[in-house]
Amino acid sequence: MEKIVLVGAGGHALSVIESIQSKEEYEIVGITDAGAVVGKKILGYEVIGKDPILKSVFNSGVMYAFVTVGSIGNTSLREKLLYMLKDIGFTLPAIIDPSSNIGSDVSVGEGVFIGRNTVVNAKSIIGDMAIINTGAIIEHSCCIDKFTHIGPGAVICGDVKISARTHVGANSTVIQGVNIGNDSIIGAGSIVIRDVPSKVVAFGNPFKVVRNNE
Ligand code: JB2
User: Which of 12, 156, 164, 183 holds its CA 20 to 30 A away from the CA of 174?
Assistant: First the structure.
């Protein structure tokens, strides 16, 4: 097994740790966190310090790291942590839960999390650092761009394009062929039946744009 260090010891870490544990691919050496007490255990894994110790973790021979801080509409911390880890020299793998069902010719970028009971169908592209959360369905030929978060139970129908850093809330449905711009937030339970611009907050059934997301 390859050694991996996790960055962020909150709620998202719980989901990621369970997926790592379900496969014999990575051994978790510890978790860094900005606030948690050193020595605190998260599902059996210790908080080993704040991020400045990551350099010495890498120098000790740990080549892999994963950002276990999630995002609800603001991905700037995930972006900062990705670049910090890459600067040190870490490789960020994709963590794909073994219960997920991934179709043919699917491309998955670095640092991506694909959680439990998800489906990603043929010819879809999942960009770097995206989160495909528990039970989400990504139909065929979708493009889910970098840092996008598809919330639990969301259904993204075929040929949908969702641009960078956009958040699709839990249990939303996006019908086939729709384009959603970058840096937008689709509220939980929304029904998206036509294109959504960049940098807006939208929700409802059918969705309405309610404000800018600047
Ligand atoms: O710069 C940092 C940093 N900033 C905050 N470095 C490191 N290593 N850790 C950092 N943190 C830590 O991230 C906080 O101290 C805290 O322990 C953790 C964030 O935890 P929280 O539970 O608030 O959020 P999350 O991002 O783990 O989970 C959210 O997103 C998920 C996708 C929650 O809303 C979850 O419910 C959701 N499933």
Answer: 12
